[in-house]
């Protein structure tokens, strides 16, 4: 445990970056992109709430609902506008490096990708897109498994049905999304079948908490390529040979689940975090050596 805490201290406190050939250490906060950063931010904000929000007898009684996603807050305020502004000022005065921006309205508010409105005393939700949002759905002709291409419209329409609370609005939002997919080149038949499939699913089912079912199928992990479909066919065609072995029977009852890793793409070839050092000649002048800082690629611990 002490060793893990020491590793965690390195990850949180020894953040560095390279700029114009020089290394700089980050003196405050944690680095963006770090595996531990989201958990660290969540823990910090939870501590902040316990200390300054939940036990605050002056402002907490005005709060009807309080929800947080990492550092984004949504709450319903029953007090006056002046007390709301005083509450925001109070939060911003607790820790010098933690500042909140306040957006409020009596009819509707945007929170992440949701618009929450108040209609006849009832909360309604709808899809929200930022003004800078662009249609950048995956191109159907890109080099990805066919299941990924087919599943993308389905997953996005499920998201629409979860968020949009009014049935009439769902029809409108689903048509908008299908139009975006169509503009990217997705087949009309696929989109129409997906819409009917999603429409048949009750929204209450999508909003209920699901229990994760553990699959007993073995995962076959490989890099996706043009031969992946051929390999899958060969495995399924001859899988019965493994099932004939009684010692393997508990593990080979079903064919494996194909899991694909992303193949190397053009970005991997062109973009590098570190520029390659210049080649240096050894003393004998016979070989060219590459001096590479290997320690930069070491991951001591991932949490």
Automatic annotation (TrEMBL):
This is Uncharacterized protein LOC121400038. It holds the Pfam family HTH_animal. PROSITE patterns: RT_POL. It comes from the Eukaryota. It comes from Xenopus laevis. The gene is LOC121400038. PANTHER family: PTHR21301:SF12, REVERSE TRANSCRIPTASE. Residues 1-120 form the Reverse transcriptase domain.
């Amino acid at each position: 445990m002490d060793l893990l805490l020491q590793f965690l201290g390195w990850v949180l406190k020894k953040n560095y970056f390279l700029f114009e050939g020089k290394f700089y250490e980050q003196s405050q906060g944690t680095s963006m992109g770090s595996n531990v950063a989201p958990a660290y931010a969540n823990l910090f904000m939870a501590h902040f709430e316990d200390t300054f929000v939940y036990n605050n007898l002056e402002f907490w009684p005005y709060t009807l609902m309080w929800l947080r996603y990492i550092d984004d807050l949504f709450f319903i305020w029953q007090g006056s506008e002046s007390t709301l502004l005083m509450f925001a000022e109070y939060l911003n005065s607790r820790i010098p490096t933690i500042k909140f921006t306040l957006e409020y309205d009596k009819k509707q508010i945007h929170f992440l990708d949701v618009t929450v409105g108040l209609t006849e005393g009832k909360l309604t939700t709808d899809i929200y897109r930022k003004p800078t949002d662009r249609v950048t759905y995956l191109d159907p002709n890109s080099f990805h498994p066919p299941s990924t291409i087919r599943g993308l419209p389905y997953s996005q329409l499920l998201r629409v049905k979860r968020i949009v609370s009014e049935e009439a609005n769902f029809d409108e939002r689903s048509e908008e999304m299908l139009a975006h997919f169509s503009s990217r080149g997705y087949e009309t038949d696929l989109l129409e079948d997906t819409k009917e499939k999603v429409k048949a699913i009750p929204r209450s089912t999508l909003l209920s908490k699901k229990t994760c079912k553990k699959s007993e199928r073995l995962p076959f992990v490989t890099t996706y390529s043009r031969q992946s479909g051929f390999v899958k066919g060969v495995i399924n065609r001859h899988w019965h040979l493994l099932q004939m072995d009684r010692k393997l029977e508990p593990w080979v009852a079903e064919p494996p689940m194909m899991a694909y890793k992303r193949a190397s793409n053009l970005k991997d070839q062109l973009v590098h975090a570190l520029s390659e050092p210049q080649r240096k000649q050894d003393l004998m002048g016979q070989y060219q050596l590459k001096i590479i800082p290997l320690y930069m690629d070491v991951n001591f611990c991932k949490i």
